[in-house]
Write a structure and sequence with these properties.
One of its GO terms (cellular component) is nucleus. Helix 1 (21-35) packs across helix 7 and helix 6 (122-138) packs antiparallel against helix 7 (145-168). The protein is mainly alpha-helical and 179 residues long. It has helices at 21-35, 38-52, 69-74, 76-94, 99-116, 122-138, 145-168. It has a single domain (21-169), classed as Orthogonal Bundle (Globin-like), CATH 1.10.490. It has seven helices and no strands.
Length: 179
Amino acid sequence: MERVSRGECEDRPERAEPLSDAEMEIIQHTWGHVYKNCEDVGVSVLIRFFVNFPSAKQYFSQFQDMQDPEEMERSSQLRQHARRVMNAINTVVENLQDPEKVSSVLALVGKAHAIKHKVEPIYFKILSGVMLSVLSEDFPEFFTAEVQLVWTKLMAAVYWHVTGAYTEVGWLQVSSSAV
């Protein structure tokens, strides 16, 4: 993957595009349906992520050698990580009216993944796309084209906050144009 010099990405916007009140309502409404099955949805997202982007498994010693989706589905470690991912998104969704809380939660996620786990930040963008695909397929009655656009905007904001934390800790950022 292509690397960019230390500091800000040239194509990193100055700030995340804010969500309108109506968009926040759409996200919270649709998330309510998703979160009822949060572990199963999270597992589906992670399995699709690892099957389609197997290089992402390098960060997970517990299941990096798993090839079979059914084996991944049975993995307690994968299920645990799926719950953590979904709970982090839930915290963001529950606190959309409190941008400082959202920012601090995502900064913690970003810093942990940058410093402790050393995950390339581009995987957050990839995971966002996988999550949107799974939600659209699993909840077609709620994830209409309009709703998908709103969720895309939210995921862009999540990515913006997470990569901001990477920049803050001096990570050599991966350009978002690398995908």
